[in-house]
Amino acid sequence: MLIKIYPENPNLREIDKAVEVLRDGGLLIYPTDTVYAMGCDALNVKAVERICKIKGIDPRKENLSIVCYDLSNISEFAKVDNTTFKLMKKNLPGPFTFILQANTNLPKIYRNRKTVGIRVPENNIAREIIRQLGHPLLTTSVHHDDEILEYVTDPELLHERYENLVDLVIDGGYGGILASTVVDCSDGEPEMTRIGKGVLLY
Question: How do residues 48-75 score in pLDDT, each as one tens digit?
Fold first, then answer.
C-alpha cells in the first residue's frame, strides 16, 4: 500500500493508517529529514526481526537505531549523561544519529549490542507517527552500504521495489541522498563515525 502524506501538514487520518500498521506488527517505509527509512514498532521483537531479515542485519554485530519523538523519554531507552544530553538537545530534531549505551528497558534483541542509535528527525510525518504510536520506531535506511541509488529517493519506486516486503510505503515527497551524521557518545566523548547531512553544534 502506498499513501501520500504532506510533511508540512500531515493528514491525521493517513497517520492513523500508519500507526495501525505498526500496532499490528507491520513494517513501513517512511520519510525522514535525510533518506527514506524502513521502520517498525521498536518494542515489537517479531517486527524488528523481520526488518533485520530483509536488510540482512545481524543485531548482535550491527548497531540498531530507534527514532524518538523528542528527548523527553530518552532515559527509558538509553543511558545518557548531562554533557551528551546537552549536545543532543542542541542538535535534535536534526539529521544526526547518536550512539549511546542501551539500558535494560529495550527488548533483548537490542541489548546484545550494548549500544543503541538514537534519532529525532526533523520531519513532521515521522514524528507524528511516533507521537501517535506512543513509543519509538526501530529504523534503518533503505539503502545498503551507504550507497544511495536513484530508487531510494523516489517513494513510488520504493513502493515498486518493497511492496511485497513491507506493509505500507509513505510518499512524503522526494527523499534526500545524504544519510545522517553518526556521533558515537557511548564512551562519553563524542566521536563522529560517519559524516553525513548536518553540521554538529557543540
Answer: 999 999 988 887 778 789 999 999 988 8
What is the chain's percent helix, strand, coil content, to nearest 5?
30, 25, 45
Q: What is the pTM of this model?
A: 0.92
Q: How far is CA 65 from the centre of its chain?
A: 6
Beta bridge partners of 30: 37
Which tens digits make up the pLDDT trace of 139-170?
998 875 555 566 678 999 999 999 999 999 99
Listed in sequence order, the residues at least 6 apart from 3 whose beta carbon sits closer than 8 Å to its beta carbon are 14, 17, 18, 168, 169, 170, 171
Q: Write the CATH number of the domain with boundaries 2-194.
A: 3.90.870.10
DSSP state, residue 68: -
Please list the alpha-helical segments (H only) found in 96-190. 108-111, 124-133, 155-162
